Amino acid sequence: MSEERLFTISDLARDFDITLRTIRFYEEQGLIEPQREGRQRLFTHRDRARLKLILRGKRIGLALSEIREILDLYELARDEASQSLKLLQLLSDRKLQLEEQRQDIDAVLAEIDILESHCRQVIDTMTGKDATP
Amino acid sequence: MSEERLFTISDLARDFDITLRTIRFYEEQGLIEPQREGRQRLFTHRDRARLKLILRGKRIGLALSEIREILDLYELARDEASQSLKLLQLLSDRKLQLEEQRQDIDAVLAEIDILESHCRQVIDTMTGKDATP
DNA sequence: ACTTACTATTACGTTAACGTAAGCTCAAGT
DNA sequence: ACTTGAGCTTACGTTAACGTAATAGTAAGT
Which residues form the HTH merR-type domain (chains A, B) (predicted)? Predict the structure, then answer.
């Protein structure tokens, strides 16, 4: 059923627009664990998905150490549920943090809007918008 | 009218929960320019506001160099409007970026929700929720 | 006069997240 | 046989954003 197509390191580097070094570094840090065929790395769809999560995490400002925690949590959630309560706590912590970040972003966006309209006003005034019908 | 209350470096450090070193570093980088009384730094409300913006920028994952750009834009917007069109372009760029970031955050929040409900299910099953009325 | 509390400057140290260069392997094409 | 291309390891270099002394001035309290 699952043909399990495999990717080379360059495939992923191209797809996600990152360097080979970055991918190797992530492996070195234990964030991904590609198979080996001889010395060459081979990546599954699962590796690809993890890489995607890693990069998304980076974009919202998480450190690799934090991303590793989260990836571990995914694993944990897959395997057992013995520590699920602890996991829930961690998740809600993370949620709070993210919601704060979103508020920050919203605040910045609002300020940008204000700045923008200021600019427009100034430009309109200077180009004499209401003086030229 | 404006009594222009002044703040010491420790005031701001306490208020924003950062170190003295951090504040001095920001000055060193030209992000703030407190007055001096002798050697001692004295901060106005304006410095305070800038600091607040800096920290907010950091929280949403901007580099100090980018924050400086933005602060400069604020200045620019205050003074002249000659380059306002350029400014508008920069602002809309920044907006796009921020909106992407927000989408990332939303995606992560959604995933967390799913993980959470998975956890709850598992816990319910293990504690035999529907077996004990 | 002495200590305590802030503040300052100078300068080397640190951590994260890769960049970059050197040198080697191995399969494929010409 | 030779070169090109992709991949590998090892290892030193780099940048940002502060941390962490070490040392010193200075005003206020006792």
Answer: 6-73
